[in-house]
Amino acid sequence: MNLKFQDVISSISWKMLxxxxxxxxxxxxxxxxxxxxxxxxxxxxxxxxxxxDLSAPIGTIHQGKEIKVGAISRKNGTVLxxxxxxxxxxxQVKDVxxxxxxxxxxxxxxxxxxxxxxxxxxxxxxxxNNHISLAIHQINSGADWQKFSNDQGKSGKDxxxxxxxxxxxSPSMKYHWGGGLGFYNISEENFYFKTLTVEFVTHFIPISxxxxxxxxxxxxxxxxxxxxxxxxxxxxTRGPLYGNQFSAQAKIFPHSKFSFLGGVEIRKMYLDGFxxxxxxxxxxxxxxxxxxxIGYYLGIAYRF
Length: 304
Description:
Strand content: over 45%
Largest sheet: 8 strands, antiparallel, barrel
CATH superfamily of the largest domain: OPCA outer membrane adhesin/invasin
Number of strands: 18
Strand order of the largest sheet: 9-10-11-12-13-14-15-18
Helix content: 10-25%
């Protein structure tokens, strides 16, 4: 079969030419709008911010490091976007010079301070992005306490906890850590449980935006002085305990001065020395090995 060149051209649908041309133009426009350029940090420690308003610092980049920044400046030409751990962050224009400029046009950088670096590795300043939080927890008291309470003629109340925590939460990191104090209390009509704990937590953050974060975390807690006492008895049973917790938490406005948090959790404490708790019946004693279960909590945090 003899086909002329014109016949082959005419047999091609105009759509087959239009879409590659359209995609090419679109990619060119995207590259122009979001393209990157090389820059070098010109100040001793350039601060990187999580937001364009420069209100949430997430770390610093040392002088002389080569980084990639966005091709188009923002906020009246004062900031440039930079990618940090897969997220958009911002650095001030005054802290960098673009590689097409001469070094003499800005602060001179000695050779020994100049080296390539992955811009994703931004140093985390431990003096920033620290949070103090206060939360109230409502937790199922568990089977042992329910039995203990039923034996005293009560239905068994939930465990209430108040946690005052310090946390370091860098917006550039996928995890955060902290520690603090907890006060736990079950107060029924004729008996109570209470203890003061020291707690340590760490959280993994799979979802993080300027509006909210989603955390999955775990932690340990310790106390050397847990107490249980029944009214009408002279002895207050005391002993140590340890525990653990696993939680899923949402935090609203996580990078603001004030933020709000809430979550669900499994929190359990293991008691030592509570095998013979005196009761109002001199011939009977009670035993509690564990306290805790599924719960939820709400709180507020302050960033400083």
